[in-house]
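Protein folding task:
====================
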Amino acid sequence: MTKLTRRNLMTAAAATGLAGVLGSRLALAADEPLGITLVVPSPIGDVGWGHALAAGLEPIKAAYGDKVKVTVLENIAEGPDADRIMNKTVADGNKFLVAGSFGYQNGALQIARRDPSVTVLHASGFQVAPNFSPFAAKYFQGTYLLGMAAAALSKTGKLGSVSAFAIPELITSINAFTLGAQAVKPDIEVSVVWVNSWFDPAREQEAAKALIAQKCDVIFSNAQDTPSVISACEEAGVYAFNLNSSMKKYAPKTYLGCISTDWSPFFKASVDAHLAGSFKGANAFLGVADKVVEVVDWNPDVPADVMTKIKEIEAKIADGSFSPFTGPIAKADGSEGVASGATMADAEIIAMNWHVKGVSTPLPK
């Protein structure tokens, strides 16, 4: 797998002209490998979102061998640079693009619309086209379960979340975390610090320390690509958990667990469909039942009776008989969010832009 960073890619572009960075603009012969490019805004590293996406492509390489060529472009900031780089990789003949950040949506969608022969998978978005599929994980299924565990372990009744951006995918994760905690302790409260970055170790660590100072004794690291929050919590003796890939080695004592994501089933099926000429763009919202989301590395400190309840709920989530977003659910302002007995549809969850009662931090305007 080839790894390129924004720095070396843009340096090469300046030196040779953008047309020469990834190869000459020639149509691929029928027997040439399928070029697959993953673009992510942060370093791949050994943990986090980018790491999970890159790992999801490994089974494709194993299955297809030299029939595919995978390139990873890391540290590509959202905005004009990302648009130019994504356009360049497609212009050079790569026909399968994984745009691995919410902020890549507009540029990636334009690529798909201009070239129907290209298949684009876009992380966390909402736009759909015949050759363009947004994909997102039902993290909320896992955060509900970890909310139950967090409430059982909390002594202060105050939980916290260091969160990247106030987009629906992360809002739903916080909301389900809160609802799961309230299922164990109804009066529990959740505070949120938005760092407005996918990768800012110093700011993430500061945010964690600020929540700990507010007596939050379980912290949810919500979409950080570094173990900064997890490490800060370990140092302070505070439980913490995260999304995407395990960070247990950074907090051997206070790690509560991980909502792990395995994108390989979705990526493999999408590549299969592209090669067969049968790909159809659709909104892929994937969870426990799809074997994309799984809670791993449970801390043994979770009381046995609570863990029994957690496993019961987990089984119901898997078979579809339980949803964290079944009413009655009140919004943070006290108004009705979900009526009693009603369950939010996936389309409503994907668009969620409000917090549930119990989240004490207002959403940024």
